[in-house]
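Supplementary notes for students who missed Thursday's class. We covered one full example, reproduced here. Read the sequence, then the structure, then the short commentary at the end.
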Amino acid sequence: MEVDRVQAIASLSKNVDTMPSEFVRSEDEQPAITTLHGVVLEVPVIDLSHSDEEKLVKLIADAAQNWGLFQVVNHGIPDEAISKLIEVGTKFFELPKEEKEVIAKTPESGIEGYGTILQTEIDGKRGWVDHLFHKIWPPSVINHKYWPKNPPSYREANEEYAKKLREVSDNLFKYLSLGVGLEGHEMKEAVGGDDLIYLLKINYYPPCPRPDLALGVVAHTDMSTLTILVPNEVQGLQVFRDGYWYNVKYVPNALIVHIGDQIEILSNGKYKAVLHRTTVNKEKTRMSWPVFLEPPPEHEVGPISKLVNEENPSKYKTKKYKDYVYCKLNKLPQ
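Structure (token representation):
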């Protein structure tokens, strides 16, 4: 069954101030009502080139514990590699609809491919977003069938970004591991080590006639271990803090790091997955490039045994990642 792409709906809605009712959120979700206006949340910005590793570990552990979210600068990924990632992803979404549909999701493709609807939403509501998913690492899980052939430099740009991103993520795992008193390698090993899957998503949020009523992506925590995200410069990320939704300040050339559910589980609740959502813009297209670092489907994740004791009993079940995903997507208890 073909789904109406949001990009097509947006182009029909250009000069009107209405949109289909399935995009109108309930009052307790509408950004105009639920956002704390006039305040931009300055989440921790951490300089990864800091020479004092002990200080870096403390900054990252504090941010993961108290925010579930931080931004990193001087991360070692060249500006050019990020610019190319943005350029080729943008060009893909500017292609004619027929070309994008060539790599559309199918019942067999699972998460990968070009699509619009991601999970069952309550009351049949929809997010104002189209997306593209494909795996970028390790080579054993990559299926180039779901990578755009156009623009021709798409593959090269994504491979270069994946290579550089792995260095950043390895360091983040090390600092997070040290931050809870483990050895540097333990946290990454607990989620699959070198078999960790890097799943890229490109979010495309076209201009929306009623951004006061719609959301791009509804409130959620990420299922992944970490999510490392490149945004474009259009405001849209919001986090829930102290009972309010706040816009997160855009920092040029920064990567945004979300603590996901699996890191919260591994740390037995010491680190917190961040509750976040995305808003949309009336005039501008917002895009983002999150990479979800996911355990292999059959890999079991639970609290690391060294972090569990009589004073701090296990707060989470140990289960296969694929079973965790199934429960989360179908809104079943974990």
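Commentary. The longest strand covers residues 197-205. The mean pLDDT is 94. If anything here is unclear, bring it to office hours.
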